Amino acid sequence: MSRTVFCQNLQKEAEGLGFQLYPGEIGKRIFDNISKEAWGLWQKKQTMLINEKKMNMMNPDDRAFLETAMVAYLFEGKEPDIEGYTPEKK
């Protein structure tokens, strides 16, 4: 059975994530307040960021940068700065 959350990113009721995909407090906040749809949108942007900036996920600085970008995107509606990518206008 799927669960519904009020997605803070999309500002609507939507299907929630099946389980907590990210560790710690931020992960709990995402699980409670972010929909599966918004998480999927972030995953695409995260992949673009990792590739564009040639990030290494073993590097704590790269992980911290991504986490900051993720929280800004999911909870504050801030698009990550991805070279050559223009977000669709809502």
Fold and architecture overview:
With 90 residues, the protein is mainly α. The chain has a single domain (4-76), classed as Fe(II) trafficking protein YggX (YggX-like), CATH 1.10.3880.10. It is built from three helices and two strands. The protein has helices at residues 24-33, 36-52, 60-76; strands at residues 4-7, 12-15. The protein has a two-stranded antiparallel sheet. A hairpin with a 4-residue loop joins β1 (4-7) and β2 (12-15). α2 (36-52) runs antiparallel to α3 (60-76). The model has no long low-confidence stretch (mean pLDDT 93). It holds the Pfam family Iron_traffic. Belongs to the Fe(2+)-trafficking protein family. InterPro entries: Fe_traffick_prot_YggX, Fe_traffick_prot_YggX_sf. Could be a mediator in iron transactions between iron acquisition and iron-requiring processes, such as synthesis and/or repair of Fe-S clusters in biosynthetic enzymes. Necessary to maintain high levels of aconitase under oxidative stress. One of its GO terms (biological process) is cellular response to oxidative stress.
